[in-house]
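Quick one: co-fold with zinc ion.
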Amino acid sequence: MPRKDALQELRSILVRRRDALRSALAGDLSLLKELRSESPGDVIDAALDTAQDEISSQLAEVESRELAHIENALERMRSGHYGLCEVCTRKIPLARLDALPYATMCIDCQRDLERTGGSRQAEAAEESYSSDMEIDVS
Ligand SMILES: [Zn+2]
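Sure, here it is.
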C-alpha cells in the first residue's frame, strides 16, 4: 500500500478512536466497546474491564491522555507534518505508525531521548503500547 494511502487509513482510525474517546468521556462507552472488538489487546481494554459501565477516574485519565495524543496527531495531519519525526524530520516507518499512530518521533530519536531522559509524555505513550504488544504475543 502506498504510504499516502496508509496514512489516510491511519487518519480514519485516529478519527474514529477520537470520537469514541470523546463519547466515552461524556459517559457513553458504546463506541469504545465497538472499537474494542476490532483492536484486541487495547490499552483501554483493562480499564474497561475494571470500569464496566462506569467510568472510573483512572479510565478518564487514560482516555484524556490518549485523546490529547490523537488530537495532536490529527493536527499534524492537517499541517502536513504527520508521520515525520519531530527531531530529525525523517519519515517515521509505517510499521511504527501502525503500532503507535500518534508517534511523533522515529525510533532512533525516541531511544536517544529515553537515554538522555527527555519527554515523560512520549515515554508514557510508549509504555502503554509496549504492554499491548505483550498481550498480543501471549
Ligand atoms: Zn528522528
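If it helps, The chain has one domain: 3-137.
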